[in-house]
Amino acid sequence: MAFPQLKLDNQLCFRLYTAARLVTSSYTPYFKEFGITYPQYLVMMLLWEKDNRIISEITERLNLETNTVTPLLQRMEKQGLIVRQKSQADSRQRIISLTGEGKRLEDKMKDVPNCLAQKIMGNGMSIEELQAMVPLLDKFISVVSNFEKDQPR
C-alpha cells in the first residue's frame, strides 16, 4: 500500500462510525417494543429532561439540522407522543411538548439505558472503562465541532 494513512485500520473515524452504528442498532430491539427510532428516543430524552422546548433548542442540543428534526417531530406528533404549538411569544417558533402518552413512555423506557450498559459490561467492558470514555468523547466532540467554524464557505 502506497499510503498507510489510507488504510482502514488506521482510521479513528472508522472506529467512531462503527461504534455509533453498532450502539444505535443495539437499541433497536428495545425501541421496536415502543414503536420509536433512536433519533426519536433522543428527542424524548430531551423532553423528559425539560418539556416545552422550541425546535431550535432541540436541533442545537442534538446537533442536527432543522430539516432533519422537523419530519422527525411530525412523525412523533402522528404517533401521539408530542404536540407542536406556535409560541405565544413568537409565532415563528414552535413549542414541542409531551403528550400524556409521551410522559408515560418515560416510565416504560426507564430501564433501556441500563439494559444496554449491562450488555456491554457482560461482554468485556467494565463500568470504569465506560465512564472513562465519556470525558474523552466530550472533548473529542468539542474539538471536532470547531472544525465547521474553520471551514471556508
Walkthrough of the structure:
The protein contains 8 helices and 3 strands. Strands 1-3-2 form a 3-stranded antiparallel beta sheet. The relative contact order is 0.09. By secondary structure, it is mostly helical. The protein has a domain at about 15-110: Winged helix-like DNA-binding domain superfamily/Winged helix DNA-binding domain (Arc Repressor Mutant, subunit A). About 65% of the residues lie in helices and about 10% in strands.
Low-confidence stretches: none
- The CATH level-2 architecture of the domain at 15-110 is identified as Orthogonal Bundle
**What's the alpha carbon Rg, rounded to whole Å?**
19 Å
Amount of beta strand: 5-15%
Structural class: mainly alpha
Number of strands: 3
- The level-1 CATH class of the domain at 15-110: Mainly Alpha
Write out the CATH superfamily name of the domain at 15-110: Winged helix-like DNA-binding domain superfamily/Winged helix DNA-binding domain
For this structure, the CATH topology of the domain at 15-110 is Arc Repressor Mutant, subunit A
Could you write a compact summary of the structure shown?
It is built from 8 helices and 3 strands, in the order ααβααββαααα.
Record keyword descriptors for this entry:
about 150 residues, mainly alpha, Arc Repressor Mutant, subunit A, 3 strands, globular
Helices and strands in order, then pairings?
Elements: H1 12-34, H2 38-49, E1 53-54, H3 55-62, H4 66-78, E2 82-86, E3 94-98, H5 100-109, H6 112-121, H7 127-145, H8 147-150
Antiparallel strand pairs: 1-3, 2-3
